[in-house]
Specification:
The chain is α/β, with parallel strands linked by helices. The chain contains eight helices and nine strands. Helix 1 crosses helix 8.
């Protein structure tokens, strides 16, 4: 039970990697506040021990602060919410740019601002906490075609992660980023259908993975648990790629 006694906040916990991470952390003994903008996706948590499910729009700064203030404690923050836009710089619109910057980056900044003071008070003011940010291998790590907005915002997440880690490395706070390759999630299937040719899109996503397959959400969650646990006490400011070989 590597997370026994810890309380975690997870955004975008209704499906995909967020949901898989909630289940993995609970299995390791954590109490998890599972949040999502779509409260219908949270119904499967009803009656589940050690999970408090509630609706949260991470584009609402006040709502984020209200959730954190309501928590009895917070040891782990997993910023999982995000969105993938398709297209090049010439195809990008200001509306898409603003939405992605707000959801992929600003929401993480707001959540960290809300959670960090609580974490600094842990252990009788000595500070203790783990912040985990969802980035992507498509970022400052690697450029991928037709991901201009997404890659830019995820590069910003890595910069945000390193800045927070550097500022609080002596205060008991760790901040790391997870950088997946292509993961088989409901949102990926939505994007494949939106392109008009689901099978062609699926083949293209698989083709860019050297392993010849997509990751499952459950293949990402062991890293979430590791970073949430004290086993990773010496790890901070890192961008951990779990990419099936894309960066080889």
């Amino acid at each position: 039970m590597r997370l026994k006694g810890k309380t975690a906040l997870v955004t975008a916990a209704g499906q995909g990697m967020g949901r898989a991470s909630v289940l993995a952390m609970v299995a390791e003994g954590a109490t998890v506040w599972a949040t999502d903008v779509n409260d219908s996706l949270l119904r499967d948590y009803d009656g589940m021990d050690n999970v408090r499910a509630l609706q949260l729009d991470v584009l609402d700064k006040g709502a984020i602060h209200a959730v954190v203030a309501a928590m009895p404690a917070i040891d782990v923050l997993f910023n999982c919410a995000g969105f993938v836009h398709n297209g090049t710089v010439l195809q990008a619109s200001d509306e898409e740019w603003n939405f992605a910057l707000n959801l992929n980056v600003r929401s993480q900044y707001w959540a960290i601002q809300a959670a960090l003071p609580r974490m600094l008070d842990n252990d009788e003011g000595r500070g203790h906490g783990s912040i985990i940010n969802m980035a992507s291998v498509c970022s400052s790590i690697k450029g991928l075609p037709n991901r201009f907005i997404y890659g830019t915002t995820k590069a910003a997440v890595i910069g945000l992660t390193k800045s927070v880690a550097a500022d609080y490395v002596t205060h008991g706070i760790r901040c790391n980023a997870i950088c997946p390759g292509t993961v088989d999630t409901p949102s990926l299937h939505d994007r494949m259908r939106a392109g008009g040719d689901y099978e062609a899109a699926r083949k293209a996503f698989i083709a860019r993975q050297p392993m010849g397959r997509l990751a499952t959400a459950e293949e990402i969650t062991p890293l979430v648990v590791y970073l949430a646990s004290d086993e990773s006490a010496f790890a901070t400011g890192q961008a951990f790629a779990v990419d099936g070989g894309i960066t080889l």
